[in-house]
Design goal:
Layout: H1 3-19, H2 24-28, H3 34-53, H4 57-61, H5 66-94, H6 96-103, H7 106-114, H8 123-147, H9 154-184, H10 190-205, H11 209-214, H12 222-253, H13 256-262, H14 264-278, H15 284-303, H16 307-314
Length: 315
C-alpha cells in the first residue's frame, strides 16, 4: 500500500469517527424536530466557517466563480441539509438501528458508482469486500432490529425507513460529486473546500429558520434550549468542520471505489457510540458484524494496491 493510500485511509477512519456522533444527536434531543436539529447544526457550522475563512477571504474570493458556488450549494443541499434532515427523521421515527443499517449501505452504492471511473479496480476484485460489508451490515441490522422495540405507528415507522433510504442516496450523490469537485480544483485545499461548503450550508440553513424556530414551534424550557445549542455546536465542530476536512483529504488521496468503503467507519463508530450511550457491550453477533465491516474495508484496500507492490510483497 503506497503512502498516499495509507494517508487517505487514515483520514477516512478519522472522518468516520467524527461523523459517528451525528447518530447520537437526534437520540439525545428527541423532543426537538428534525428541521430544528438540521437548522441548529448548520447555522453554527456556517458561522464557524465564516470566522475561519475570514483571514484568507481575499485570497480565495478571486479563485471562485459562479460554477464553484453552484457546486457548493448543491453539495451542501445533498450532503448536509437534506441528508441530516432525513437521517434525523429516520432515527426518531424508525430507530437508530434501522437508520444505521440502511445508511450503512452507502459504501456499496458509492463503490458501485465508482467502478466505471477511469482506472477503477474491476468489480470482480471488489466483490469479496462488498459482500463482507453487506453481510456485516445485515448482521448489525438484524441484531438491532430484534432487540429494538418499535415506537409510533406502523405508518410512521415506514416513513422513517423511507427517510433512511433517502438519506442513503442523498449522501451517495454528495460523496461522488464532492470527489469530482476536489479532483477538478486541486488548487483548493480540502479544509478550505470544507469551510466553503460550510458557508453555503449556513446560507441555506437560514431558509429553515422561520419554520424551525418560529412557526408552530413547541415550547421548551431554557435548559433544553441550552442543551440543544450546545449539542448543535458540538456536532457542527466535530462532524462538520473536522469530519468534513478529514473526508476531503481522504477523497483527494483515494479512488472513488475505495472512498466509498471508508464510509463504513461512520456506521462502525455510530454503533460504538451507541453502545457507550446505552452502557452495554456489543453482543456476539454485533462483534462478528464489526469484524466483517473492518475486514471488508481492509480487503478493498488490498485490492487497490498497485501490481508492483503486490508482486514485491509476494516475493
Amino acid at each position: 500500500m503506497n503512502r498516499s493510500i495509507g494517508w487517505g485511509i487514515a483520514n477516512g477512519i478519522a472522518a468516520g469517527a467524527l461523523w459517528g456522533v451525528v447518530f447520537l444527536a437526534p437520540a439525545m434531543l428527541a423532543s426537538f424536530r428534525a428541521d430544528q436539529l438540521s437548522a441548529g447544526r448548520y447555522l453554527v457550522y456556517g458561522l464557524i466557517a465564516v470566522v475561519l475563512l475570514a483571514p484568507r477571504w481575499r485570497q480565495l474570493r478571486g479563485r471562485l466563480g459562479m460554477a464553484e458556488w453552484r457546486g457548493l450549494l448543491w453539495l451542501s443541499l445533498a450532503g448536509n441539509l437534506v441528508y441530516f434532515l432525513l437521517l434525523a427523521t429516520a432515527v426518531q421515527w424508525a430507530g437508530g438501528a434501522a437508520a444505521s443499517l440502511i445508511v450503512g449501505l452507502i459504501p456499496v452504492v458509492v463503490t458501485l458508482a465508482g467502478v466505471r471511473e477511469e482506472g477503477a479496480v474491476p468489480l470482480r476484485r471488489l466483490a469479496p469486500a462488498l459482500l463482507l460489508c453487506l453481510f456485516g451490515v445485515a448482521l448489525v441490522g438484524y441484531e438491532a432490529l430484534q432487540a429494538e422495540h418499535a415506537e409510533g405507528s406502523a405508518a410512521q415507522r415506514l416513513l422513517g425507513l423511507l427517510c433512511a433510504i433517502g438519506a442513503l442516496f442523498s449522501w451517495a450523490v454528495y460523496s461522488i460529486g464532492n470527489s469530482r469537485w476536489l479532483a477538478r480544483r486541486p488548487d483548493l485545499s480540502g479544509h478550505d473546500w470544507s469551510l466553503l461548503t460550510g458557508v453555503a450550508t449556513g446560507a441555506l440553513a437560514l431558509l429553515l429558520v422561520p419554520t424551525a424556530f418560529f412557526a408552530g414551534t413547541p415550547a421548551h424550557p431554557p435548559a433544553q434550549w441550552g442543551l440543544f445549542w450546545l449539542a448543535s455546536a458540538g456536532v457542527a465542530v466535530v462532524a462538520s468542520v473536522l469530519g468534513n476536512a478529514c473526508w476531503n483529504r481522504a477523497s483527494r488521496h483515494l479512488p472513488l471505489t475505495l472512498t466509498g468503503q471508508m464510509i463504513v467507519f461512520e456506521t462502525l463508530f455510530a454503533l460504538l457510540y451507541g453502545f457507550a450511550w446505552r452502557q452495554r457491550w456489543p453482543t456476539h453477533m454485533e462483534a462478528v458484524a464489526i469484524v466483517c465491516l473492518v475486514s471488508g474495508v481492509l480487503l478493498c484496500a488490498h485490492a487497490h494496491r498497485p501490481p508492483r507492490a503486490v508482486a514485491e510483497h509476494a516475493g
